Each structure stands twice: as C-alpha cells, then as structure tokens.
Recover the amino acids of this structure.
C-alpha cells in the first residue's frame, strides 16, 4: 500500500496549495510535520499562481490500496 503525506496551505491571495510527499518516514510525528510546514512557509521556496504559502491549513496521511484486475 502506498502512503502519502499531504500538507495543505493557504496562499498569499487566499488560494490553496497541497504538497504531497510520497513514502513519508513513519511514524509521522505531529511536531515534525508542524516544523516542516513552518519551515516551508518561512523559506518561501514554493510559488503558486495565488502566491506563496502563508498559513498551515491541514496535514493528513493518506493510504491507498489498489487491486489490479487482470482482464487478459
């Protein structure tokens, strides 16, 4: 099963940005996630059409399970 850490931000112009991190280090620690999100905001290295991220909105760990069906 593939896991992904999704970090959600509000941008300068009120838009949203999601940063997806594949195969995050587990266990995912809340303090580490908050620190990483604060660093992303402080460093200003990401730019979207609605500006840079300025506020933490959400963080979630998503697990996806895919069963491939052999059709021939």
């Amino acid at each position: 099963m593939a896991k992904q850490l999704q970090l959600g931000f509000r941008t300068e112009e009120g838009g949203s940005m999601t940063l997806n991190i594949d195969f995050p280090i587990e266990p995912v620690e809340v303090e580490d996630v908050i620190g990483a999100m604060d660093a992303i905001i402080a460093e200003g290295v990401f730019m979207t059409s609605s500006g840079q991220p300025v506020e933490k909105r959400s963080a979630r760990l998503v697990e996806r399970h895919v069963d491939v069906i052999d059709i021939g």
